[in-house]
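Changelog-adjacent note: as of this version, every example in the card shows the full chain rather than a window. The one below runs 142 residues end to end.
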Amino acid sequence: MIINQGELFRGMTMVFMKEFMDFTARESYKKGDFVFHEGDPAEYFYTLLSGSVKLNIGETGQRVYMVSKPGDAFGWSSVAGRDIYSASAECTEPTTLLKIGRDKLSRLLEKYPDCGVLFYKKLSEILGKRLIGCYQIISQSS
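Full-length structure tokens:
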């Protein structure tokens, strides 16, 4: 299962992953398509199946992160207590994603608390790494 290649879902139970997959929708995008824009309502959480997505912020579209490995996830605002996306997500090539609604994911994480704890633990680790990467980009540009 491609989704298990991502850091976030390693160690999740098969029962959890089956229900997760049952709640997802598969979507395809063309190069240049936006999955969402900075400031849009944060309604969905996404997992990359194929392709790549550039996450950028601000009107100039400064790249802050590239989602390019199958199983990588983005749209964290939807699960991190934010009502809007903090970045825009633009496909840099033909891309296929899985999306799950924030409420469905929240209910699923509550139903399987062990997986919920693991999910948020891994989420904090991944976001910490991305933050360090952003700091490095900022320090290189100054």
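Structural remarks: The helical segments are 14-23, 102-111, 113-141.
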